[in-house]
Design brief:
Distance between the termini: 25 Å
Number of strands: 0
Radius of gyration: 28 Å
Largest sheet: none
Order of helices and strands: HHHHHHHHHHHHHHH
Number of domains: 3
Number of helices: 15
Shape: elongated
Strand content: under 5%
Protein backbone atom coordinates (compact mmCIF):
# COMPACT_ATOMS: atom_id res chain seq x y z
CA UNK A 1 0.00 0.00 0.00
CA UNK A 2 2.85 2.37 0.83
CA UNK A 3 4.46 1.75 -2.54
CA UNK A 4 1.20 2.14 -4.45
CA UNK A 5 0.74 5.43 -2.64
CA UNK A 6 4.27 6.44 -3.67
CA UNK A 7 3.50 5.51 -7.29
CA UNK A 8 0.31 7.59 -7.46
CA UNK A 9 2.10 10.53 -5.85
CA UNK A 10 4.93 10.19 -8.38
CA UNK A 11 2.39 10.07 -11.20
CA UNK A 12 0.89 13.37 -10.13
CA UNK A 13 4.32 14.94 -9.71
CA UNK A 14 5.40 13.76 -13.18
CA UNK A 15 2.26 15.24 -14.71
CA UNK A 16 2.91 18.57 -13.01
CA UNK A 17 6.38 18.53 -14.58
CA UNK A 18 4.78 17.89 -17.98
CA UNK A 19 2.49 20.87 -17.39
CA UNK A 20 5.44 23.05 -16.41
CA UNK A 21 7.25 22.05 -19.61
CA UNK A 22 4.24 23.07 -21.73
CA UNK A 23 3.96 26.41 -19.94
CA UNK A 24 7.68 27.11 -20.27
CA UNK A 25 7.87 26.28 -23.98
CA UNK A 26 4.83 28.38 -24.85
CA UNK A 27 5.98 31.55 -23.14
CA UNK A 28 6.22 34.48 -25.57
CA UNK A 29 9.72 35.13 -26.90
CA UNK A 30 10.15 38.88 -26.60
CA UNK A 31 13.68 38.89 -28.02
CA UNK A 32 12.66 38.18 -31.62
CA UNK A 33 12.73 40.88 -34.28
CA UNK A 34 8.97 40.60 -34.15
CA UNK A 35 8.22 39.74 -30.52
CA UNK A 36 5.54 37.10 -29.94
CA UNK A 37 2.31 38.49 -28.55
CA UNK A 38 1.45 37.58 -25.00
CA UNK A 39 -2.25 37.14 -25.74
CA UNK A 40 -1.62 34.76 -28.67
CA UNK A 41 0.86 32.67 -26.71
CA UNK A 42 -1.50 32.54 -23.73
CA UNK A 43 -4.14 31.06 -26.06
CA UNK A 44 -1.64 28.49 -27.33
CA UNK A 45 -0.74 27.55 -23.76
CA UNK A 46 -4.40 27.18 -22.81
CA UNK A 47 -5.07 24.96 -25.84
CA UNK A 48 -1.99 22.82 -25.21
CA UNK A 49 -2.85 22.31 -21.52
CA UNK A 50 -6.40 21.36 -22.46
CA UNK A 51 -5.07 18.70 -24.85
CA UNK A 52 -2.64 17.46 -22.21
CA UNK A 53 -5.39 17.09 -19.59
CA UNK A 54 -7.66 15.28 -22.04
CA UNK A 55 -4.83 12.90 -22.87
CA UNK A 56 -4.32 12.20 -19.18
CA UNK A 57 -7.99 11.33 -18.66
CA UNK A 58 -8.85 9.22 -21.69
CA UNK A 59 -5.34 8.02 -22.70
CA UNK A 60 -6.22 8.72 -26.34
CA UNK A 61 -3.54 9.82 -28.82
CA UNK A 62 -2.95 13.55 -28.69
CA UNK A 63 -4.89 15.53 -31.27
CA UNK A 64 -2.90 17.14 -34.08
CA UNK A 65 -3.63 20.83 -34.25
CA UNK A 66 -2.85 23.24 -37.04
CA UNK A 67 -0.02 24.61 -34.95
CA UNK A 68 3.23 22.63 -35.23
CA UNK A 69 4.64 24.31 -32.16
CA UNK A 70 1.77 23.12 -29.96
CA UNK A 71 1.99 19.62 -31.46
CA UNK A 72 5.73 19.37 -30.82
CA UNK A 73 5.41 20.63 -27.26
CA UNK A 74 2.58 18.18 -26.47
CA UNK A 75 4.41 15.24 -28.06
CA UNK A 76 7.53 15.93 -25.99
CA UNK A 77 5.56 16.55 -22.76
CA UNK A 78 3.56 13.30 -23.02
CA UNK A 79 6.66 11.32 -23.97
CA UNK A 80 8.61 12.81 -21.04
CA UNK A 81 5.73 12.04 -18.66
CA UNK A 82 5.61 8.37 -19.73
CA UNK A 83 9.39 7.95 -19.47
CA UNK A 84 9.52 9.62 -16.05
CA UNK A 85 6.63 7.49 -14.78
CA UNK A 86 8.20 4.30 -16.11
CA UNK A 87 11.43 5.17 -14.32
CA UNK A 88 9.57 5.92 -11.08
CA UNK A 89 7.66 2.64 -11.32
CA UNK A 90 10.87 0.69 -11.80
CA UNK A 91 12.48 2.41 -8.80
CA UNK A 92 9.44 1.93 -6.55
CA UNK A 93 9.10 -1.76 -7.54
CA UNK A 94 12.73 -2.43 -6.68
CA UNK A 95 12.56 -0.53 -3.39
CA UNK A 96 9.40 -2.40 -2.41
CA UNK A 97 11.25 -5.69 -2.00
CA UNK A 98 14.30 -4.07 -0.42
CA UNK A 99 12.20 -2.25 2.19
CA UNK A 100 10.55 -5.47 3.38
CA UNK A 101 13.90 -7.23 3.56
CA UNK A 102 15.30 -4.24 5.49
CA UNK A 103 12.69 -4.87 8.18
CA UNK A 104 14.61 -7.99 9.17
CA UNK A 105 17.86 -6.02 9.12
CA UNK A 106 16.48 -3.51 11.64
CA UNK A 107 15.19 -6.36 13.81
CA UNK A 108 18.72 -7.78 13.95
CA UNK A 109 20.15 -4.33 14.64
CA UNK A 110 17.79 -3.79 17.59
CA UNK A 111 18.78 -7.12 19.12
CA UNK A 112 22.40 -6.00 18.84
CA UNK A 113 21.46 -2.71 20.53
CA UNK A 114 20.42 -4.65 23.64
CA UNK A 115 23.87 -6.23 23.70
CA UNK A 116 25.53 -2.83 23.22
CA UNK A 117 23.72 -1.39 26.24
CA UNK A 118 24.98 -4.32 28.32
CA UNK A 119 28.54 -3.61 27.15
CA UNK A 120 28.63 -0.04 28.46
CA UNK A 121 29.70 -1.03 31.99
CA UNK A 122 31.46 -4.23 33.03
CA UNK A 123 30.69 -6.38 36.07
CA UNK A 124 27.09 -5.32 36.46
CA UNK A 125 23.91 -7.35 36.45
CA UNK A 126 23.17 -6.07 32.95
CA UNK A 127 26.61 -6.97 31.61
CA UNK A 128 26.12 -10.49 33.03
CA UNK A 129 22.44 -10.70 32.07
CA UNK A 130 21.60 -14.28 31.12
CA UNK A 131 19.15 -13.23 28.37
CA UNK A 132 21.78 -10.94 26.87
CA UNK A 133 24.29 -13.80 27.04
CA UNK A 134 21.91 -15.93 25.02
CA UNK A 135 21.87 -13.18 22.38
CA UNK A 136 25.67 -12.87 22.48
CA UNK A 137 26.08 -16.60 21.94
CA UNK A 138 23.34 -16.96 19.33
CA UNK A 139 25.19 -18.25 16.27
CA UNK A 140 22.39 -17.28 13.90
CA UNK A 141 22.44 -13.70 15.20
CA UNK A 142 26.23 -13.53 14.90
CA UNK A 143 26.01 -14.83 11.34
CA UNK A 144 23.35 -12.27 10.38
CA UNK A 145 25.38 -9.42 11.88
CA UNK A 146 28.36 -10.36 9.71
CA UNK A 147 26.34 -11.14 6.59
CA UNK A 148 24.36 -7.89 6.72
CA UNK A 149 27.34 -5.85 8.01
CA UNK A 150 25.36 -4.52 10.98
CA UNK A 151 26.92 -2.59 13.84
CA UNK A 152 26.33 0.36 16.18
CA UNK A 153 29.93 1.55 15.88
CA UNK A 154 29.02 5.06 14.78
CA UNK A 155 26.48 5.44 17.59
CA UNK A 156 28.38 4.01 20.58
CA UNK A 157 28.80 7.51 22.05
CA UNK A 158 25.03 8.01 21.88
CA UNK A 159 24.42 4.62 23.52
CA UNK A 160 26.79 5.46 26.41
CA UNK A 161 25.18 8.87 26.80
CA UNK A 162 21.68 7.37 27.04
CA UNK A 163 22.92 4.71 29.47
CA UNK A 164 24.59 7.20 31.82
CA UNK A 165 22.14 10.08 31.58
CA UNK A 166 18.88 8.20 31.45
CA UNK A 167 18.92 4.43 31.95
CA UNK A 168 21.26 4.44 34.97
CA UNK A 169 19.00 6.99 36.68
CA UNK A 170 15.81 4.94 36.29
CA UNK A 171 14.71 3.60 39.72
CA UNK A 172 13.51 0.29 38.27
CA UNK A 173 16.81 -0.28 36.49
CA UNK A 174 18.77 0.77 39.58
CA UNK A 175 16.81 -1.75 41.67
CA UNK A 176 17.63 -4.49 39.18
CA UNK A 177 21.33 -3.65 39.27
CA UNK A 178 21.26 -4.01 43.06
CA UNK A 179 19.84 -7.54 43.04
CA UNK A 180 22.24 -10.25 44.17
CA UNK A 181 22.33 -12.98 41.48
CA UNK A 182 19.12 -12.10 39.60
CA UNK A 183 17.04 -14.95 38.19
CA UNK A 184 16.65 -15.41 34.46
CA UNK A 185 13.13 -13.98 34.70
CA UNK A 186 14.45 -10.88 36.48
CA UNK A 187 17.05 -10.60 33.69
CA UNK A 188 14.30 -10.90 31.11
CA UNK A 189 12.21 -8.24 32.86
CA UNK A 190 15.18 -5.86 32.77
CA UNK A 191 15.69 -6.40 29.04
CA UNK A 192 11.98 -5.82 28.42
CA UNK A 193 12.22 -2.62 30.48
CA UNK A 194 15.04 -1.39 28.22
CA UNK A 195 13.07 -2.30 25.09
CA UNK A 196 9.98 -0.44 26.27
CA UNK A 197 11.48 2.59 27.97
CA UNK A 198 14.69 3.16 26.02
CA UNK A 199 14.86 1.54 22.60
CA UNK A 200 11.31 2.44 21.57
CA UNK A 201 10.93 5.58 23.68
CA UNK A 202 14.11 7.63 24.00
CA UNK A 203 13.84 10.62 21.65
CA UNK A 204 17.51 10.59 20.60
CA UNK A 205 17.33 6.94 19.62
CA UNK A 206 14.01 7.44 17.84
CA UNK A 207 15.48 10.37 15.91
CA UNK A 208 18.38 8.19 14.77
CA UNK A 209 16.13 5.26 13.81
CA UNK A 210 13.80 7.56 11.88
CA UNK A 211 16.80 8.87 9.93
CA UNK A 212 17.79 5.28 9.11
CA UNK A 213 14.31 4.03 8.16
CA UNK A 214 11.86 6.40 6.48
CA UNK A 215 9.08 3.95 7.38
CA UNK A 216 10.01 3.76 11.05
CA UNK A 217 6.62 5.08 12.16
CA UNK A 218 4.88 2.22 10.33
CA UNK A 219 7.50 -0.42 11.12
CA UNK A 220 8.12 0.28 14.81
CA UNK A 221 5.19 -1.76 16.14
CA UNK A 222 6.16 -4.77 14.02
CA UNK A 223 9.78 -4.49 15.13
CA UNK A 224 8.83 -4.04 18.77
CA UNK A 225 6.69 -7.17 18.63
CA UNK A 226 9.51 -9.14 16.96
CA UNK A 227 12.15 -8.04 19.46
CA UNK A 228 9.93 -8.76 22.47
CA UNK A 229 9.07 -12.20 21.12
CA UNK A 230 12.76 -12.98 20.64
CA UNK A 231 13.44 -12.02 24.26
CA UNK A 232 10.50 -14.11 25.44
CA UNK A 233 11.85 -17.15 23.53
CA UNK A 234 15.55 -16.37 23.94
CA UNK A 235 16.30 -19.87 25.21
CA UNK A 236 15.32 -21.34 21.81
CA UNK A 237 18.38 -19.68 20.21
CA UNK A 238 16.42 -19.00 17.03
CA UNK A 239 15.61 -15.76 15.26
CA UNK A 240 12.27 -14.72 13.83
CA UNK A 241 11.77 -14.51 10.10
CA UNK A 242 9.80 -11.88 8.20
CA UNK A 243 7.93 -14.75 6.62
CA UNK A 244 7.78 -18.52 6.87
CA UNK A 245 8.07 -18.63 3.09
CA UNK A 246 9.60 -15.38 1.91
CA UNK A 247 9.73 -16.35 -1.78
CA UNK A 248 5.98 -17.07 -1.89
CA UNK A 249 5.10 -13.93 0.05
CA UNK A 250 7.38 -11.82 -2.13
CA UNK A 251 5.64 -13.17 -5.24
CA UNK A 252 2.28 -12.41 -3.61
CA UNK A 253 2.85 -8.74 -2.94
CA UNK A 254 4.68 -8.17 -6.24
CA UNK A 255 1.69 -9.65 -8.07
CA UNK A 256 -0.74 -7.62 -5.94
CA UNK A 257 1.20 -4.42 -6.68
CA UNK A 258 1.50 -5.08 -10.43
CA UNK A 259 -2.07 -6.30 -10.99
CA UNK A 260 -3.47 -3.29 -9.14
CA UNK A 261 -1.65 -0.97 -11.55
CA UNK A 262 -2.35 -3.05 -14.67
CA UNK A 263 -6.09 -2.88 -13.98
CA UNK A 264 -6.07 0.71 -12.71
CA UNK A 265 -8.54 2.02 -15.30
CA UNK A 266 -11.06 -0.77 -14.65
CA UNK A 267 -10.71 -0.31 -10.90
CA UNK A 268 -11.30 3.44 -11.22
CA UNK A 269 -14.44 2.74 -13.26
CA UNK A 270 -15.72 0.23 -10.70
CA UNK A 271 -15.16 2.62 -7.79
CA UNK A 272 -16.73 5.55 -9.61
CA UNK A 273 -19.77 3.51 -10.64
CA UNK A 274 -20.59 2.00 -7.26
CA UNK A 275 -19.47 4.60 -4.71
CA UNK A 276 -22.85 6.32 -4.61
CA UNK A 277 -22.80 9.86 -3.26
CA UNK A 278 -18.99 9.79 -3.31
CA UNK A 279 -17.04 11.31 -6.16
CA UNK A 280 -13.80 9.40 -6.67
CA UNK A 281 -11.73 12.59 -6.75
CA UNK A 282 -13.09 13.47 -3.29
CA UNK A 283 -12.11 10.16 -1.71
CA UNK A 284 -8.91 9.95 0.33
CA UNK A 285 -6.13 8.48 -1.80
CA UNK A 286 -5.43 5.89 0.89
CA UNK A 287 -9.07 4.73 0.75
CA UNK A 288 -8.94 4.47 -3.05
CA UNK A 289 -5.74 2.40 -2.86
CA UNK A 290 -7.20 0.10 -0.19
CA UNK A 291 -10.30 -0.46 -2.34
CA UNK A 292 -8.20 -1.18 -5.43
CA UNK A 293 -6.00 -3.64 -3.55
CA UNK A 294 -9.02 -5.38 -2.05
CA UNK A 295 -10.69 -5.89 -5.43
CA UNK A 296 -7.39 -6.97 -7.00
CA UNK A 297 -6.94 -9.61 -4.31
CA UNK A 298 -10.48 -10.91 -4.81
CA UNK A 299 -9.94 -11.25 -8.56
CA UNK A 300 -6.39 -12.57 -8.75
CA UNK A 301 -5.85 -14.87 -5.78
CA UNK A 302 -8.21 -17.85 -6.04
CA UNK A 303 -7.04 -19.47 -2.80
CA UNK A 304 -7.94 -16.48 -0.59
CA UNK A 305 -11.60 -16.34 0.54
CA UNK A 306 -13.43 -13.12 -0.26
CA UNK A 307 -14.32 -12.50 3.39
CA UNK A 308 -10.68 -12.88 4.41
CA UNK A 309 -9.66 -10.24 1.84
CA UNK A 310 -12.37 -7.84 3.01
CA UNK A 311 -11.44 -8.27 6.69
CA UNK A 312 -7.74 -7.74 5.94
CA UNK A 313 -8.34 -4.42 4.18
CA UNK A 314 -10.69 -3.24 6.90
CA UNK A 315 -7.76 -3.78 9.31
CA UNK A 316 -5.43 -1.86 6.99
CA UNK A 317 -7.89 1.05 6.88
CA UNK A 318 -7.91 1.23 10.70
CA UNK A 319 -4.19 1.96 10.69
CA UNK A 320 -3.71 4.05 7.59
CA UNK A 321 -6.93 5.91 6.90
CA UNK A 322 -9.56 8.11 8.53
CA UNK A 323 -11.77 7.09 11.50
CA UNK A 324 -14.79 6.73 9.19
CA UNK A 325 -12.94 4.64 6.62
CA UNK A 326 -13.57 1.27 8.28
CA UNK A 327 -17.31 1.34 7.63
CA UNK A 328 -16.86 2.91 4.19
CA UNK A 329 -14.27 0.31 3.08
CA UNK A 330 -16.36 -2.54 4.47
CA UNK A 331 -19.52 -1.42 2.67
CA UNK A 332 -17.89 -0.83 -0.69
CA UNK A 333 -15.81 -4.02 -0.71
CA UNK A 334 -18.95 -6.02 0.16
CA UNK A 335 -20.76 -4.34 -2.73
CA UNK A 336 -17.87 -4.91 -5.14
CA UNK A 337 -17.72 -8.58 -4.12
CA UNK A 338 -21.45 -9.04 -4.81
CA UNK A 339 -21.19 -7.32 -8.19
CA UNK A 340 -18.09 -9.22 -9.31
CA UNK A 341 -19.47 -12.55 -8.12
CA UNK A 342 -22.76 -11.99 -9.97
CA UNK A 343 -20.71 -11.25 -13.10
CA UNK A 344 -18.72 -14.46 -12.63
CA UNK A 345 -15.43 -12.58 -12.33
CA UNK A 346 -14.47 -13.91 -8.90
CA UNK A 347 -13.41 -17.52 -9.12
CA UNK A 348 -12.18 -19.31 -6.03
CA UNK A 349 -10.68 -22.77 -5.88
CA UNK A 350 -9.78 -25.12 -3.08
CA UNK A 351 -11.58 -26.75 -0.20
CA UNK A 352 -14.30 -24.54 1.23
CA UNK A 353 -13.90 -21.93 -1.52
CA UNK A 354 -16.11 -23.29 -4.28
CA UNK A 355 -18.99 -21.05 -3.21
CA UNK A 356 -16.67 -18.01 -3.12
CA UNK A 357 -17.64 -17.34 0.49
Amino acid sequence: MQNLFAYYQAKEADFLLAEDYVKEKLQPNLNLDVPEKKIEMAEKEKEALSILHKWKIDKSPTIDTEDNRIDDVIDFATSKFEKDLEKDLRTISQKMVIEVENLHKYYIKLLLLIIEFSNVKEDTNLSNNKIVDLLRNNEELSSELIKKDISWGSQLVLIKKIYNNFLAKEPEFDSYQAINNPTIEEDRDCVNFIIKNIIFAHEDLIEYLESEDIYWEENKNILKSMVRKSIKDAESNTLLKISQNWDDDKDFFKKLFNETLINDDNLNELITKHSKNWKKDRLALTDVIILKMGVTEMLNFPSIPVKVSINEYIEVSKTYSTPKSKQFINGLLDKFADVLQSEGKIKKSGRGLIDNK
